[in-house]
Amino acid sequence: MTEPPLPLRRAVRALMIDHSDRVLMVKLHIEHSGWTGWVLPGGGIEEGEDTETALRRELLEETGLADPFIGPVVCSRTQRGPSVALGYGGQQDEIRLVPCHDFPLAPALEKDDLWGEGIVDMRWFTPAEIHASNEKIVPEGLAGLVDRVLEFGGSVDPLVIDITESEADPS
Question: For the chain, which domains are there?
């Protein structure tokens, strides 16, 4: 008898773009899989949270940004297969536009807690740096998404990314 598939983890991430068109990204290292790459800040939606509440919590924990403006959904990404969180069959990310000014990166979580979540670095990337990077960047096609958002703002139809298990990265 075949076991039913594991549920997908619901998550929300921020496409944070500052006044210089830079994008904030965090570097994850997932110990149990050995996966390392750059992702947008955010994370899992906890029981009873809506996406905006979860994103505000995640941004405060990871970046120190309190009470940001949460814009529209600019990307929906479903990844089936290995997941960051054990016990899930993949992840569904809702990526929201979060325009922001420069602010000091001062995560509410202590460094050890960030490392416990797999966050080993964070920094601002210019669009040119995203296009030129040879490092793993998730979501796939982030450079094109950033270009679309910079050209059209939050009025773009959300980009939809659906990844099968054979293509999947655990992020």
Answer: 9-167 (3.90.79.10)
